[in-house]
Amino acid sequence: MSVASSQKPRVGRLVPTKTTGIYYRLKADGRKTFYVRYTRPDGKRTFEAAGSFEDAKGRLAEVQGKIKKREVIGSTRTTVEDVIAEWEQTRTTSNRAHAKWRTRSCVCTSVRHSVACG
Q1: DSSP state of 22
Q2: pLDDT at 34
Q3: What would the DSSP string read from start to end of 82-117?
Q4: Could you tell me if 33 and 27 are in contact, meaning their C-beta atoms sit under 8 angstroms apart?
Q5: What does DSSP assign to residue 68?
Q6: Residues 54, 12: Cα–Cα separation, whole Å
Q7: Which residues lie closer than 8 Å to 21 by C-beta, 6 or more apart?
Q8: Tens digits of per-residue pLDDT, 93-115?
Q9: What residue segments make up the domains of the chain, in order of their start?
Q10: How do beta strands 22-26 and 14-16 pair?
């Protein structure tokens, strides 16, 4: 999946770099955001935004070290609040979207309370 030198990368598309496991995405304003791609021990592929190329190289080295040591890998920037927000989003767009608004609201409130007070 390499880009020919005569073609310009399109905005929003992930483009591989010469370093295996590091990609970049071109923004509309011409800036690049670099991403690290790796396969977790459970077999799932993961992309993490890393900002600069140096940050991406550092994160990739960190992840590869953890994989060799069989340590748990997770995003260093993900918060509990992010996880709950993502979970709430999937609850409203999944097959459970047919549930009444009040039910969804109560469940989400209960989860937030349990995690915050847990």
Answers
A1: E
A2: 94
A3: HHHHHHHHHHHHSGGGGS-HHHHHHHHHHHHHHHHH
A4: yes
A5: H
A6: 21
A7: 36, 37, 38, 60
A8: 655 555 666 666 676 677 767 76
A9: 14-68, 80-117
A10: antiparallel
**Per-residue pLDDT tens digits for 34-82:** 999 988 777 788 888 888 999 999 999 998 898 888 777 766 667 777 7
The pLDDT value recorded for residue 1 is 46
Flag whether pLDDT at 3 surpasses 50.
no
What fold characterizes domain 14-68?
A: Double Stranded RNA Binding Domain (3.30.160)
Task: Let me know: does 67 contact 38? Beta carbons within 8 Å.
Answer: yes
Amino acid identity of residue 103, one-letter, is T
Report the distance separating Cα 60 and Cα 40, nearest Å.
12
Residue whose tokens read 């409203």? 92
